[in-house]
Q: What sequence folds into this?
């Protein structure tokens, strides 16, 4: 690689730097957010599993309590019964009857709520009478200190347990933990809750993740656009400076030539019209820059009047002929007569001139062929300017109408211009409620610009 | 015999003005309006100087200059362009330009620079060193053939680079100021740009210093200028 190329690349790299920096920040942010979110989802799923396990643990604990309490109640009942009646016969089966009654029909038989210590918190339903019905006078012994605990409903989990069975007779314990089963519908509910939680967090998480990615993309795009515009404005300043300097250079050169007095007086007479030419060129340039700023502020009012577009277009083209000649160009016209359109004569003239000017600028130096066509298409007048020039790559066709946009790279550009011409064309045409389009078969194959204006009906 | 100048300028008015003035000074001129025809004209004609614009249709001025240098053309090239950033100047010199003048320019200055370029060519023809080949370390510069052996082997030098090396060799082991170099090699008495000399020294260091950050032949003397030590001196 030659040193000059390397230097150029370094410079291009430097110009690209701010946007690259922003890009890296965004990638880091997005990765961070997505990572956080993924972690959160995993955490939530894990929490769901743990909660399910926790509930199961509590239930199992309750079962253990329950079994324990029932056994204790049985024992104390047996003890009391033997004290008062001196016999155990038939009593456990009565207790079983009592439990069966409660469990089979809690709403009717009644229920009670106890805490883990076995203290009665609430008695409900017909529990007292159920107990009395089963145990008769013996039941009085229990009325003051409460009934056997946790037989129906536990406080913490609010679950009902079905007591599967009792060991009859004197076998202890009367109730084992395996006899108290977690009801299948409770298991199903726990499973369902856990699954719902997972589905909720996965879908919520993905939604937020998409939202973050979309937001990041939007911000990145905005940044890139503003960076792009900044670069284009810099390029514009560079380009417009160049455009201003050219006529200035020429005028200065001529003035100094005249001042030095070294040049043949016969020839020096030719210099004045050329200087006037340069003045005009400067004037046009100032006008363009000014127009662009006016259109940009949206406070530009067109002076619309119905006119014969055919005649106007011929006028515009006539005034361009000298320029076309100077560029060795060949301008062919195919103009349909009598098209009536509402236009602002000066503004539309500026747009047509800009298109012809562009066609000349971007055509081969040897033989420039331009073709201007005006014809009626449905209710619109279509004016197209075709050239055999460099054409426009497909990717840039939408962008060339943007302000300051110029095809290619400023540092290696060989065609002069400010990037305002086509922007003005579009602004002017749209102010006429028309459209401007470009088509090109690609680089090196020419391009066709078409202005479409609504015709005056009738 | 009058000197022949090729004007490469796509702006008709500027080209006309340049032609008019240079002819009034007694030079012979030809005008090319784009890069490709500039190269074609240069191949045919025997020019003593090229005034080269940068933004040109077809092939830009930098590319034209590179092409000429690649084809071993040693004709002095004066860039005349509206691009006035420091980067643009450096690029101009790296492409092989000898001088760089920005638009709008002062006519008097342009004519003086053109005259100076020709005057320097006369100085370059004289021989104080008594040899056409300057040798230092493993390297050499041949002032007649414009060839040199540098860090990357044999290379072609531009006339301006040869002139600077010749001037430095004539003042070997002495401190020379940037103004002295400008005066001898460019011959200005107006608007000297010291950075121009610096740009050339940077390029010469790339050619002759294995490590251009730690030069042993082409030293910068802070606040004063440069010193050429053919024997090679390490210096911190």
A:
């Amino acid at each position: 690689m030659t040193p000059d190329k390397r230097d150029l690349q370094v410079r291009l790299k430097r110009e690209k730097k701010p946007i690259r920096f922003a890009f890296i920040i965004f990638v880091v942010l997005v990765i961070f957010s997505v990572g956080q979110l993924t972690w959160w989802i995993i955490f939530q799923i894990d929490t769901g599993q743990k909660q399910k396990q926790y509930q199961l643990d509590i239930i199992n604990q309750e079962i253990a309590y329950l079994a324990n309490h029932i056994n204790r109640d049985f024992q104390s009942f047996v003890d009391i019964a033997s004290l008062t009646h001196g016999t155990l016969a038939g009593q456990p089966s009565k207790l079983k009857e009592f439990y069966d009654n409660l469990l089979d029909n809690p709403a009717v038989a009644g229920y009670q709520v106890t805490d883990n210590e076995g203290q009665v918190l609430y008695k409900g339903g017909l529990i007292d009478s159920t107990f009395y019905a089963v145990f008769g006078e013996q039941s009085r012994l229990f009325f003051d200190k409460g009934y056997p605990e946790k037989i129906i409903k536990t406080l913490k989990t609010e679950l009902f347990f079905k007591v599967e069975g009792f060991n009859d007779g004197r076998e202890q314990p009367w109730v084992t933990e395996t006899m108290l089963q977690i009801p299948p519908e409770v298991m199903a509910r726990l499973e369902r809750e856990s699954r719902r939680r997972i589905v909720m967090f996965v879908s919520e998480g993905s939604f937020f993740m998409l939202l973050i990615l979309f937001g990041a993309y939007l911000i990145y795009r905005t940044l890139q656009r503003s960076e792009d515009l900044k670069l284009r404005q810099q390029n514009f300043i560079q380009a417009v400076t160049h455009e201003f300097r050219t006529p200035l250079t020429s005028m200065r050169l001529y003035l100094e030539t005249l001042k030095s007095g070294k040049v043949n007086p016969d020839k020096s007479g030719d210099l004045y019209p050329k200087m006037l030419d340069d003045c005009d060129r400067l004037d046009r340039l100032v006008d363009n820059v000014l127009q662009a700023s006016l259109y940009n502020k949206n406070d530009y009012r067109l002076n619309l009047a119905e006119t014969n577009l055919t005649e106007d277009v011929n006028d515009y083209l006539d005034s361009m002929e000298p320029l076309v000649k100077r560029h060795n160009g060949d301008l062919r016209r195919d103009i349909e007569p009598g098209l009536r359109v509402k236009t602002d004569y000066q503004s539309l003239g500026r747009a047509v001139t800009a298109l012809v000017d562009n066609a000349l600028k971007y055509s081969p130096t040897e033989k420039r062929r331009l073709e201007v066509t005006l014809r009626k298409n449905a209710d619109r007048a279509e004016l197209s300017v075709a050239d055999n020039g460099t054409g426009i790559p497909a990717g840039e066709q939408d962008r060339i109408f943007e302000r300051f946009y110029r095809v290619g790279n400023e540092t290696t550009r060989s065609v002069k211009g400010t990037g305002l011409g086509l922007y003005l064309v579009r602004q002017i045409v749209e102010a006429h409620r028309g459209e401007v389009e470009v088509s090109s078969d690609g680089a090196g194959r020419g391009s066709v610009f078409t202005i479409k204006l609504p015709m005056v009906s009738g | 015999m009058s000197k022949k100048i090729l004007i490469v300028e796509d702006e008709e008015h500027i080209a006309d003005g340049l032609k008019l003035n240079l002819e009034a000074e007694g030079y012979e001129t030809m005008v090319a309006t784009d890069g490709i025809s500039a190269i074609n004209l240069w191949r045919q004609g025997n020019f003593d100087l090229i005034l080269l614009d940068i933004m040109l249709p077809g092939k830009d001025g930098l590319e034209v200059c590179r092409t000429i240098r690649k084809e071993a053309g040693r004709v002095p090239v004066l860039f005349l362009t509206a691009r006035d950033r420091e980067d643009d100047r450096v690029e101009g010199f790296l492409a092989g330009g000898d001088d760089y003048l920005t638009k709008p320019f002062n006519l008097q200055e342009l004519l003086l620079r053109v005259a100076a370029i020709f005057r320097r060519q006369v100085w370059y023809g004289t021989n104080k060193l008594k040899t056409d080949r300057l040798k230092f370390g493993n390297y050499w510069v041949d002032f007649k053939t414009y060839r040199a052996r540098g860090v990357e082997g044999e290379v072609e030098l531009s006339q301006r680079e040869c002139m600077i090396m010749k001037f430095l060799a004539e003042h070997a082991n002495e401190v020379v100021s940037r103004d002295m170099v400008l005066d001898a090699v460019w011959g200005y008495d107006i608007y000297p740009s010291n950075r121009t000399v610096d740009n050339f020294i940077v390029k010469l260091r790339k050619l002759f210093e294995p490590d251009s950050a730690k030069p042993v032949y082409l030293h910068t003397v802070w606040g004063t200028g440069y010193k050429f030590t053919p024997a090679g001196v390490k210096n911190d």
User: Anything to note?
Assistant: The domain at 133-228 of chain B is CATH 1.10.10.10 (Arc Repressor Mutant, subunit A). Chain B touches chain A at residues 11-14, 16-18, 20-21, 24-25, 33-35, 55-60, 62, 66, 82-83, 87, 90-91, 94-95, 103-108, 203, 206 (CB under 8 Å).
